[in-house]
Write a structure and sequence with these properties.
elongated, mainly alpha, 2 helices
């Protein structure tokens, strides 16, 4: 099951993904799992001086860097 899910996530060919998804569905029906999905709690900390940081729910751990381009430590007003 784990290998199939990993293959589905990394595969971009729609037809072979459909075949693998059908295999996953068949395995689920045959196995009758009590708890299939696991959602870990991701904890991340940020300094109060970090600007542009907006904590948001994470689907995967790497999502915490989704808005890294907006993060900043110091800002100053500059007159032109």
């Amino acid at each position: 099951m784990d290998k199939l899910l990993e293959t589905i996530r990394q595969n971009f060919d729609e037809e072979s993904r459909r075949v693998d998804i059908a295999k996953v569905q068949r395995l689920i029906v045959e196995d009758y799992p009590a708890v299939f999905l696991f959602a870990p709690h991701y904890l991340y900390l940020a300094s109060k001086s970090l600007g542009g940081f907006e904590p948001a729910p994470l689907a995967i751990a790497s999502d915490r860097f989704r808005t890294v381009a907006q993060w900043h430590l110091k800002t100053a007003r500059v007159f032109k």
